[in-house]
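ok so i was messing around last nite and threw this chain in just to see what happens. nothing serious, just curious
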Amino acid sequence: MSKLKDYKAVNEPVFSYFKNSVERKNIEKEYENMFNSKTEIPLYIGSEKIFTEKRKDILPPHDHKNVVGTYSLADEGHVKSAIDNLLKNKTTWSETSWEERCNIFLKAADLISKKYRTKILASTMIGQSKNIFQAEIDAACELADFLRFNVEYLVEIYNEQPIDGPGKKNNLEYRPLEGFVYSVTPFNFTAIGANLCASAALMGNVVLWKPSDNQVLSAKITMDVFEEAGLPKGVINLVTGDPEMITNIALSHKEFSGLHFTGSTTIFRHLWKKIGENINTYRDYPRIVGETGGKDFIFCHPTADLEVSATAIIRGGFEYQGQKCSAASRIYLPRSISKELISNVVDQVKTIKMGSPIDFNNFMTAVIHEKAFERISNYIEYAKSSNDCEVLCGGGYNDSVGYFVEPTIILTSDHQFKTMREEIFGPVVTIFEYDDKDWKSMLDVLDSTSEYALTGAFISNDENSINYALNKLKYSAGNFYINDKPSGAVVGQQPFGGCRASGTDDKAGSKLNLLRWVSPRLVSRTENPPTSYPYEYMD
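result:
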């Protein structure tokens, strides 16, 4: 019996990167080498790595005048060729034993955690402007965790079988989808980019991968890892270029079988509509899996601990510049503790250092690109000019070297204020104060303020209030955190996803997600089949 039948994943340990540690010296060296070189990124189509004449520069968000590489831009012919190649390789991959598929991705996890650890960390720090801790928990640990736990979940799924009946042997086959899966991935998590491809591929599917233009550096390292791990060429094909052109070709193809998406709500809705318009084109009804936006909350009950609340607000709101779909963005504070709590938070935020990710004293770095910088700064200026709020700290921004936005805290008197409702995706947190006696009714306000329902946190030392909030906010968040920030889901521990405008809640990091990438077939074998039609009850 295969050893994989009993496989249980273990979370990848998080390295510390203390001063003078070996791992710190290694990442500093790798960062310097990668930052001062020029990485050329091709299209990955089958056995070919195609460098096109049309390319775009890769510019670190924290130093946007420094070109660290280029990536190739696909034309329509490249995209069609990539899909044709996937379909050509589909049968062979789908018939590859599940043990072999699992071993490939387990080897990839080992490569990520060891040989390629510094490379994928450096690429994430440079290309996506993540500090070392944010890069470590994402590109090294979460990515390795996804790959390993997906194997455990595959084993669980394959072991789930129907019971046999009298004279019948029943078996569920977990077939891959009949066509190809289209994976559209975001800039902010290297692990998400890899997993949206790997999860579908593990289940026997072939995948067309369009990563974010702002994640191509770490995407290239991911493809290198998959190749060295033994993933056959043509199982995952990577194309970069005009997203609308690539998407139109993928979603209009007869063999399109599934969309695995993480990104904005607006784009996801657009893609869903396009799939609906093309529904008569497809062989099957495509699987649509998406994790989209968030307007994530922290609600402090009057019994909330001040230090716990302050830490949750700061870490939840400003880690990775607030560029997480799970980032805390709207805060509800009871008046009895709000003055002291706000003072504590503001004082701590003023100590936050911001700059290049290679300076390990920097808690924050730059936002991802110029458009993000402009969008976030416009929200800040709107708040500055409004009579309904006050900017308590931060509010500054500068793009002369990199796209730097100060951690900003807004206090509003209007719980429906613009920055309480709309996703900003940057280091901006808005606070609303409520009367202690109104905490229950404020939960109704919280639930109806935003269209999103991704993550949320309730901070309280009163168990009855926690139980009340859990029931009242049943559909307000797919991931609900008690006495902590609303971010930081760990694979295998907190399956991640939300509903409403935040996505399909298919829970990445669980077998629920993997089940979306199979088409089960029931095979029932009758041992002594009947030989005449009348039943025994008939005279």
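not much to say yet. The radius of gyration is 25 Å.
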